[in-house]
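#onboarding

Welcome to the new folks! Below is a worked example of what a typical request in this channel looks like: someone posts a single protein sequence, and someone else replies with the predicted structure as tokens. Don't worry about understanding the tokens yet, we'll cover that in week two.

Example request:
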Amino acid sequence: MIKSSADEVAGIRPTLADLAVLMRDAFERVRSSGRTDWNVMTVPVLKNRLLHMTGRQFSEISYGAHSMSELIGQFPELLEIDTSVKPPKVRLREGGGQPAEAFPARYQIRRDLWNAVVDFDRGEPYLWTGTVALPESECGEAERLSELPTLTREAETAWRADFAASVADGLDDNDRDKVNVWLERQLSTRALPTDVQGTWNDHLRARVLDRLRQWFHDHDIDEPADLLVAASKPADRRDGPGLDELRAFVIRCVQNMNFEELSELRLPPQALLRTERRPHPWRGDAAK
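Example response:
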């Protein structure tokens, strides 16, 4: 493999084997999002994904190639490139993807901590109780709690602008316009071109995680062991019970439990904490 002189000076020795793993993972991330055409993407989108996965360190020059298309050509058994369309498209060949179990499980940020950073529209700070992040209105007045680093609208817009700039070169005019509208109107992820929705989600998760970890470090607080939790595939609720129906069913089950069954009941700690902190009319009556 040819290496540039800059790589030799810096002592960087990238390998094609490492890059093959990254490329497979780029496609695998799209597959995990549920897309049926996960094995096909444009060459610019593939490059953007590699840039994101390597912290903007990826460069085809490091692998002795003068273009992405030339680099992709070094993986004939893994990738197939179609240069008859613009921008060119690249397809992961059948059998090129590793079995799902060969990839590490996908993780997501714990919901209460995720909300503590991104839920700036709530209009109140989130506080860290030592075990859970709660809106200030749900915390006891006597507690001395630390305020978590909730984003401002301006900071979130800056994140969006950084992302838009990072993907602009790899998009055609139509998709670039969609990204600009998404940025200017502060639209949801679904307003983005399909090919970059997953990339934005990855970008946002990484920024939120960095913000949380920096906050715990700055406050000399150990980050919770479950800051990252295994992501589960969303359940298909089209034919399933709604929240009210499910809650009513659980209540009926509890009402029919005997003492031993109630003793075995396990409840989520966050649900217990929300219930404990929520005002109850009967408590007020008892105090009168």
